[in-house]
Amino acid sequence: MAPGPGCTSQTTMLSGGGGVGCVDNSTSNESAMEDQNGDTVGNLIHNIGKPPRDHSVMRHCTSSSWLIEPESDIMIVGLKTTSEEKSEFSPKLRSGSCSEKGPKQYMEDEFICVDILREHTGPSVNLPSPAAFYGVFDGHGGIDAASFTRKNILKFIIEDSHFPSGIKKAVNSAFVKADHAFRDASSLDSSSGTTALIAIVLGRDMLIGNAGDSRAVLGKRGRAIELSKDHKPNCTSERLRIEKLGGVIYDGYLNGQLSVARALGDWHIKGSKGSKSPLSSEPELEEIVLTEEDEFLIMGCDGLWDVMSSQCAVTMVRRELMQHNDPTECAKALVAEAIQRNTCDNLTVVVVCFSLDPPPKIEIPRAHRRRSISAEGLDLLKGVLNGR
């Protein structure tokens, strides 16, 4: 594929290659971006966003808004009541993306943004409005698996007999079909592999499907809500599954070879089709109903999350949207920030907004100050009151 970066706000497919090696400079100066945004709620009560996986290269994000009064004291300008929200809210979708090779020698990431899904299904398929599809594919061992998955995964979903009414079954089946079809593509290197993270929006329903360690994070009035789980071999549920199927984990690597527990491709590890492999291509699914509080979705490969927490990314995107309301610029900003924080991987970010308007300003009331008096001061006050 052609070398170099690419940032788009349209329906896009992109990849690149070429570059220099990575140097871990985790002790360098602090990042230029600090989450000091008074207009952002941040992590008010629940620290929902997980910490990054590689603490050696983490630059801490701090926000003065995290120190405010409980969430019930916050007034959001223009926010409707719960009953109005349930009856009236309809997502207005727009997306932006950015993909950079970063410090790696080759680009192995792919992504896809389809804001209008009807253009890919035809009039015969009864789709709600809006309907959209987004995906991030983080390749390893070459670009073949990521490129093949990006080109074919949506087709397998749409062609499934359960689509769109049984969307979960359609997505689960499509992941497995794409994996097997890649194995049968004789012109491609079946030993290459890829993670696969997809999001499908059908009306107010959004389904996240994930296999691997890319991550989808929902921005909900400034709070980070993780909608996918990182499939690392050391994760308890994945480790139990791997060991049950005869796999082993060496120093965090599946069979000493792979740093993820789920992926498409990697048929040198999976063996023959039909055999039970500790490396799974089946996605974990998460379905939510979007509300007016749900402002945007961030989808990114692990090159982003290795150096940035989910909450830090949400805080940054919300602040950017309030400044220019451009999801493409938000994706660029996250990529640039991750590079400045010395990520050692390719970087791909997709930002999906659920409204045409920027996030509303959050009014934070002045905190009530509690004053105290020392023992000496109290004794002096008593003396004054007693006329001493």
From TrEMBL:
Catalytic reaction list: O-phospho-L-threonyl-[protein] + H2O = L-threonyl-[protein] + phosphate; O-phospho-L-seryl-[protein] + H2O = L-seryl-[protein] + phosphate
All copies of domain PPM-type phosphatase, residue ranges: 94-354
GO MF annotation: an example: metal ion binding
Keyword Methyltransferase (UniProt): no
Keywords, comma-separated and alphabetical: Hydrolase, Magnesium, Manganese, Metal-binding, Protein phosphatase
Cofactor(s) essential for the protein: Mn(2+); Mg(2+)
Region span, Disordered: 1-38
Any single Gene Ontology cellular-component annotation: nucleus
E.C. numbers: 3.1.3.16
Coiled-coil regions listed in the entry: none
Family: Belongs to the PP2C family.
PANTHER family, A to Z: PROTEIN PHOSPHATASE 2C, PROTEIN PHOSPHATASE 2C 47-RELATED
Name of the protein in question: protein-serine/threonine phosphatase
Native source species: Arachis hypogaea
